[in-house]
Aspartate racemase (Bosea lathyri), 231 residues
Amino acid sequence: MHIGLIGGIGVAATVVYYQRLTAAAAARGVSRLELTIAHGEIQELIRNNLADLRAEQAQAFLPLATRLKDAGCDCLALTSLGAHFCLAELAALSPLPIVSAVAPLDAYFVERGIKRIGLLGTRVVMRTRLYGQLGHTDAIALDDEIEILGQTYQDVAVAGTCSAAQRERFLDAGRRMTAAGADAIVLAGTDLNLAFDGQDPGYTVIDALDVHVGVLADLAAGRKSLAEVAS
């Protein structure tokens, strides 16, 4: 299974996808991972995401999807949960099936008995509660702070680094959502590893990136078929 990634959205997230996917595939016994990455433009994604220009962003991704198809990929994945705001529009155009990062999350939470999650990520991810795609899991966010948390996340994603003050803002948001009844805090932004890696915040943290990578690694290892996981 030749996996294609649309990366660059942002760069730090793409690097983590590459690191974790290669490790997960190796852990599943994949001796030679077939993987191609096409570079997308994060500023274009930010503009279209904030303006809810789904069709425009899907058109922006289409040449990258075509490039991955031409490179021999069997499927593609977006290395940004924020980019999933145009997933339906892109799926209608894409020459390759798309492996969503959002779709596997609900089942993951149910399997682990997690009934309520707190969300950190882009403004749209937090405001829409993961695009309204959680059918069995309750989701909360700090609604009065979505703008500041979303801007902080955007700044981190663009810079590819996280300051101590930015990290503390995210950690504190997680503490308050846990106090409000969240069973776990979900890093629903693929650059949030910059804030949470190596930290012990005192509450359960689930990185949505790891769930997505697990699905992609299962595909690479032949443990799952595209019919099971692709849009």
